[in-house]
Amino acid sequence: MNKNSIILSVAILSTLASIAFILLKNDIAASALGIVAYMFSALAVKKITQKWQFYFFFFAALIAGYAMGLKGAPPFLAAGIFFFSLMIGMRTLFFERLAHTEIGWMEPLFYALGSGFYVAGNLLYSNGWMGWVFPIPLIAFNTYMVITMNQDYKALRSVVRKFTIDLGKPAPGFTLTDQDNNQVSLSDYKAKRHVLLIFVRGDWCPTCHIMLRTYEKYKEKFAEKNIMLLAIGPDSIGVNHEMVVRLGLDYKMLCDDKAEVAKAYGMMFQSNNSSAKYGDGIPLPASFLVDINGILLYTTNPHRPGSILTPDTIFPVIEQLAV
Prior knowledge:
Blueprint (H helix, E strand, L loop, with lengths): L2 H21 L3 H19 L5 H18 L7 H18 L1 H4 L7 H19 L3 H6 L2 H27 L12 E3 L5 E3 L8 E6 L6 H12 L1 H6 L2 E7 L3 H11 L4 E4 L4 H5 L3 E2 L12 E2 L2 E5 L5 E4 L15 H4 L5
Helix pairs in contact: 1-2, 1-3, 2-3, 3-4, 4-6, 4-8, 6-8
């Protein structure tokens, strides 16, 4: 059993245990396990990213909040913790529709609703010391998250405003190492194959897992048009190899650990999520189509990062390609 499966198993088992202690009317144990369930289910969402995991995360939040509140009173604490979970999970779960640079208010709104229900639930109803104290770790975690998300949003908007890419011009060349430690150059495919470059933010990014799986689903469509898929990310060769195996990818994952290629394509922005692991920042999620002659033909809209999850928008472009 790998690390990700262990995290998910702990999340599920602690949720079930919290429910059991609720039924046994052991509020302290139920609340403590509810906190564990919330934190581990949040960690699980970052890695495996099946849709049911997001819904389980929201469910775990409701259980955690219910365990902390006064039984018989309106479930204000459950609503508060639930809104905190929406703050973390909603944009990723509905990335295609919600990920663009004009929606910066969503996380602060859910955070405000979560905080409001937490305070109101304790002021209006006597939840005792547990109602005030037990949610504090979750509130601290979500406070950190909303601050970093807001900073990332501002950094993203700043980069997108400056983004320029000249379609119809030669694509910046590069040589990187793939997940099997082989050197791969963009020029290797010139006069042989078209290339679709897929920039990912790293293995920590749940949306990137969804994105890579989405492109995998269309691999036959791309193969028909002689298109080679190359994913590019900031992680090490070993991390990339593990990710390719775990996600079942049938294309190469290239290591851009110095961010030289991401910078060349204008895909870099400084993110709090990257500060410890990726010193120069992380790439924006985006894709670029390079034709058989090395010319840039298409890019997803950087103002709408969610468009990376709709590769069918590229189909009218690839239909015009010579095989």
